[in-house]
């Protein structure tokens, strides 16, 4: 395998461009490195190095100092502090979930919940994300659209469903007589996972109180769930979106329950355009239920 040190600058630039085009935006080591602990150890070493000349100048001179070691060796230098463990410091998952639940339940409005989410640091996803994605749109509409997690476009723009999938969602809503201004749009996970990977179970558990509180505060009468992750997250099942779509189910928390229907995510429709017919059936069923409730 060719190593980086054996490559020319032009070859390195070409390799980085290839990775960027492939969607890679984070480079990691094979083993986790605690950069904070490494910096602390380096700082302590520098402090020790600066203090030793002063100690040597203050030490007594002459034979007593030279003969302090019977063999005539120089006094041993104090070892530098050992680096801390490579494990990253983190809040235990159960404590982070409890903190998230307390922060979410303490909010009495969506504005307060947004502030609580901005100030929350118990989820590691926040450290690598550029933006915190929160509900946008009309909370009085009675309609909520919930996706899985932010994409790279969402993270860059700071808005759920940006980019190509956002344009397709706009067209999907327009087809049933709605727009972004007519609904409340949010994501289950407020921070984009590195490399667009799926959130882990602990990460999803930490984020759950915030999305459930968004639902409770907005009190939507109907919720449209988009994609596999959103359907499984709220319905508590492991089937694919093709098995879970088109069925009205009750979701929510102990403080508020509402009806939801799952359908395919816009990104899934961009990947498999043949599935648009299924999504159109779901959208028609969703809007029929909304109109029936408002009649």
Automatic annotation (TrEMBL):
Keywords assigned by UniProt, alphabetized: 4Fe-4S, DNA damage, DNA repair, Hydrolase, Iron, Iron-sulfur, Metal-binding
Region entry Disordered, spans: 50-86
Annotated Pfam families: UDG
InterPro entries associated with the record: UDG_Type-4/5 (IPR051536), Ura-DNA_glyco_family4 (IPR005273), Uracil-DNA_glycosylase-like (IPR005122), Uracil-DNA_glycosylase-like_sf (IPR036895)
UniProt enzyme class: hydrolase
Catalysed reactions listed for this entry: Hydrolyzes single-stranded DNA or mismatched double-stranded DNA and polynucleotides, releasing free uracil
EC numbers for this chain: 3.2.2.27
SMART domains named in the record: UDG, UreE_C
Sequence ranges assigned to domain Uracil-DNA glycosylase-like in this UniProt record: 134-284
NCBIfam families the record matches: UDG_fam4
Sequence similarity: Belongs to the uracil-DNA glycosylase (UDG) superfamily. Type 4 (UDGa) family.
Protein name: Type-4 uracil-DNA glycosylase
Organism listed in the record: Peteryoungia desertarenae
């Amino acid at each position: 395998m060719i190593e980086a040190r054996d490559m020319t600058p032009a070859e390195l630039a070409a390799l980085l461009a290839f990775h960027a085009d492939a969607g890679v935006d984070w480079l990691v080591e094979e083993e986790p490195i605690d950069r904070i602990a490494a910096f602390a150890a380096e700082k302590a070493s520098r402090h020790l190095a600066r203090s030793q000349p002063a100690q040597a100048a203050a030490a007594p001179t002459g034979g007593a100092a030279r003969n302090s070691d019977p063999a005539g060796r120089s006094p041993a230098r104090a070892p530098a502090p050992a680096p801390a463990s490579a494990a990253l410091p983190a809040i235990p998952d159960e404590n982070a979930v409890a903190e998230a639940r307390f922060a979410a339940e303490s909010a009495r409005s969506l504005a307060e919940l947004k502030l609580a989410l901005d100030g929350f640091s118990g989820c590691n996803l926040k450290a690598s994300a550029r933006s915190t994605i929160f509900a946008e749109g009309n909370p009085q509409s009675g309609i909520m659209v919930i996706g899985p997690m932010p994409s790279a476009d969402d993270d860059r723009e700071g808005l759920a469903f940006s980019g190509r999938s956002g344009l397709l969602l706009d067209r999907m809503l327009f087809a049933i007589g709605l727009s972004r201004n007519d609904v409340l749009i949010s994501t289950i996970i407020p921070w984009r996972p590195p490399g667009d990977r799926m959130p882990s179970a602990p990460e999803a558990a930490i984020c759950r109180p915030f999305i459930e509180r968004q639902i409770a505060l907005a009190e939507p009468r109907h919720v449209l769930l988009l994609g596999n992750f959103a359907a499984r997250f709220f319905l508590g099942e492991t089937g694919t979106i093709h098995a879970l779509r088109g069925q009205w189910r009750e979701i929510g928390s102990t403080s508020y329950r509402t009806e939801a229907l799952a359908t395919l995510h816009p990104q899934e429709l961009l990947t498999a355009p043949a599935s648009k017919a299924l999504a159109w059936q779901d959208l028609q069923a969703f809007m029929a239920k909304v109109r029936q409730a408002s009649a």
